């Protein structure tokens, strides 16, 4: 008479969840020959945190990496204009500081790192260096994972601590004005008053799914067969079950050598009346390709990058690539640059004057040239407006009106 293998090999995820940590033993009909193999467990997600997000997201996921590169490079290419009384002043000290933040980094490299830290951790920090003691002469990026807020009794920061290579630097806020040599810009976080929430963390589960699909597919390529199904025991006459020693050896073999993504496709060696019956769905049946594609779309959605720009098919939101690119600049890049200009301008205003305004110079953005030309054409044909009114709508300085 044929029997089941012991039910330790047949636990389902529901049984594991309901009785975590407790081995479940169930008896089976004595005339059963089928042994269902179920080794699936609970999903394991990447923990939140700067190190985990940078490793699993930016360094190991091509979609997240490309999203960040597209955003940081595009945003860093937008010139920041120092404006006072509606006019951009090229020789303004604040403008010179933004054009050359420090001797070690060019402007584009400096702002790429700034936006990258903001996207990766939800926080970006700048340190102002005062050479003459009156106004900043250089700006430096500080890594978010090394910064820690020093909170007061009211729960708001009294200063910051920067820990690098075992050395701690402390930056205290001015007790009267709250001004500090450290500037902190954050993405909105619904449950944290101090630190920001990053799009990388919002896309963390999609990143894990996409990465796991890559690991699984690579494992399938490394192995020539894929055991997935049921074991059927057909013993000799008079043998109706496996011995305890045979069962333990089989269980150890399955759990050690044939479970998980690393063992995908590894052939299973059977002996002693055991037969393998394929039952489970193949990778094509499980639609791994579409699952990874949807994960890639979710990652792009979290960062605000149209999937069409990443080469992800199946997106009909935009009529063509040109419209997708225009939406990328209008909905993702320009809001980010404007927020950055407002934030840095408010911070630098303590040294360069309260009338300081930092705005993006959209006239130097090639992607918006067609849209800008259309606006100018419409303004030129508007006979009911004078020159200054047209210049104001176009974002140009207003000239003295003629009488």
Any chance you could write out the topology, listing elements then pairs?
Layout: H1 13-18, E1 34-36, H2 50-59, H3 62-76, E2 80-84, E3 87-88, H4 93-99, H5 107-121, E4 123-129, E5 138-142, E6 147-151, E7 157-164, E8 167-172, E9 182-186, H6 199-202, H7 204-222, E10 229-233, H8 244-257, E11 274-278, H9 288-303, H10 321-352, E12 357-360, H11 369-380, H12 387-393
Antiparallel strand pairs: 1-10, 2-3, 2-12, 4-5, 4-9, 6-7, 7-8, 10-11
Descriptive terms for the model:
disordered N terminus, alpha+beta, 3-stranded antiparallel sheet, 12 helices, 403 residues, single chain, flat
Task: Please describe what this structure looks like.
This protein is of the alpha+beta class and 403 residues long. Helices cover 39% and strands 15% of the residues. It has helices spanning 13-18, 50-59, 62-76, 93-99, 107-121, 199-202, 204-222, 244-257, 288-303, 321-352, 369-380, 387-393; strands at 34-36, 80-84, 87-88, 123-129, 138-142, 147-151, 157-164, 167-172, 182-186, 229-233, 274-278, 357-360. The strands form 4 sheets. A 3-stranded antiparallel β-sheet has the order 1-10-11, with no helix packed on it. Strands 3-2-12 form a 3-stranded antiparallel β-sheet. It has a 3-stranded antiparallel β-sheet with strand order 5-4-9. It is flat and about 100 Å long. Mean pLDDT is 78; it is low at 1-41.
């Amino acid at each position: 008479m044929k029997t089941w293998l012991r039910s330790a090999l047949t636990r389902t995820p529901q049984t594991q969840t309901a009785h975590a940590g407790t081995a479940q033993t169930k008896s089976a009909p004595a005339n059963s020959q089928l042994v269902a193999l179920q080794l699936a467990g609970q999903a394991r997600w990447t923990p939140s945190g700067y190190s985990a997000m940078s490793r699993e997201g930016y360094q190991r996921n091509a979609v997240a990496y490309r999203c960040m590169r597209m955003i940081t490079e595009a945003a860093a290419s937008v010139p920041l204009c120092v404006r006072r009384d509606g006019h951009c002043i090229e020789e303004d000290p604040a403008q010179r500081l933004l054009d050359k933040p420090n001797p070690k980094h060019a402007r584009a490299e400096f702002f790429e790192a700034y936006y990258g830290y903001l996207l990766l951790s939800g926080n970006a920090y700048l340190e102002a260096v005062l050479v003459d003691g009156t106004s900043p002469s250089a700006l430096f990026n500080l890594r978010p994972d090394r910064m820690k807020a020093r909170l007061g009794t009211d729960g708001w920061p009294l200063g910051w601590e920067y820990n690098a290579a075992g050395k701690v630097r402390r930056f205290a806020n001015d007790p009267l004005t709250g001004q500090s040599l450290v500037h902190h810009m954050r993405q909105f976080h619904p449950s944290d008053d101090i630190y920001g929430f990053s799009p990388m963390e919002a896309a963390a589960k999609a990143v894990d799914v996409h990465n796991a699909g890559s690991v699984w597919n690579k494992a399938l390529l490394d192995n020539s067969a894929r055991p997935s199904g049921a074991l059927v025991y057909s013993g000799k006459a008079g043998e109706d079950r496996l011995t305890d020693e045979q069962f333990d050896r089989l269980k150890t073999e399955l759990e050690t050598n044939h479970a998980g993504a690393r063992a995908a496709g590894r052939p299973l060696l059977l002996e002693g009346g055991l037969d393998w019956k394929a039952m489970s769905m193949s990778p094509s049946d499980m639609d791994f390709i579409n699952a990874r594609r949807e994960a890639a779309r979710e990652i792009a959605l979290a960062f605000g990058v149209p999937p069409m720009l990443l080469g992800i098919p199946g997106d009909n939101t935009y009529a063509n690539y040109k419209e997708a690119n225009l939406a990328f600049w209008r909905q993702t890049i320009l809001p980010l640059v404007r927020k950055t200009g407002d934030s840095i301008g408010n911070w630098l205003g303590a040294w360069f004057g309260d009338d300081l305004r930092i705005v993006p110079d959209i006239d130097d953005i090639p992607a918006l040239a067609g849209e800008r030309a259309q606006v100018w054409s419409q303004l030129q044909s508007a006979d009911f407006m004078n020159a200054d009114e047209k210049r104001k709508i176009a974002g140009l300085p207003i000239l003295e009106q003629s009488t």
